[in-house]
Amino acid sequence: MKPATGDYVEGVRVMLPLLPGAVPFGMIAGAVAAEAKFGAAAGIGQSIVIYAGAAQLASTQLIADAAPALIVVLTGLVINLRFAMYSASLAPHFAGLSLRRRAMLAYLMTDQSYALGITRYTADSEITARAKARFYLGGAIAMWVVWLAATAAGFTLGSRVPPSWSLDFFVPLSFLALLVPGIRDRAAGLAAVTGATVAVAASGLPFNLGLFLAAACGIAAGYFCETRWTPKKPQQGEN
Description:
Helix content: over 70%
Radius of gyration: 20 Å
């Protein structure tokens, strides 16, 4: 039988290639918090309390721009809506765990931990719920530690990070690395292309409103393709 620690170690091992991508992302989040005149407790502490990557970064920028509170809240909700889908997808795998343990797994959820976890569980139908949780925690905790360290470094360095480093270039790259493997059918592809096109075209709208428009258009395009263009699978008993 595989030792319990082996599941944690495996989770860390598969997460390792994705950790470098979180470093520049976290440093940008920390630097933006410093530029927004957040104190150290708020600038670094938000990574512990919120721990939401893109939503954390976008909300901080909006606060710095003196955007209305409603826009800040809605932006965070829209960006984090995907976690509701992640949770629904993972719920059957962790159904046998205690509420406290599931709450910890939910707090540590990131795009990376979800993608690696669901891929692992799909490939191995014999893995137990406890082994799934250990595998998930191994990678998720590694990501959490790196994110906190990166945001603290970004907050401390602040404006001393040379603009020529173009760290923000790594942010979309890290998401693309997760997005592309998930595009497995025509509906997902159309949703991704539509969302990206609208996001670029509407990038000039104030308060990140282009994000709302791009998300809505992408979802609508994927839904339309799924319901109108995708052939329906024959039901059992049909010829």
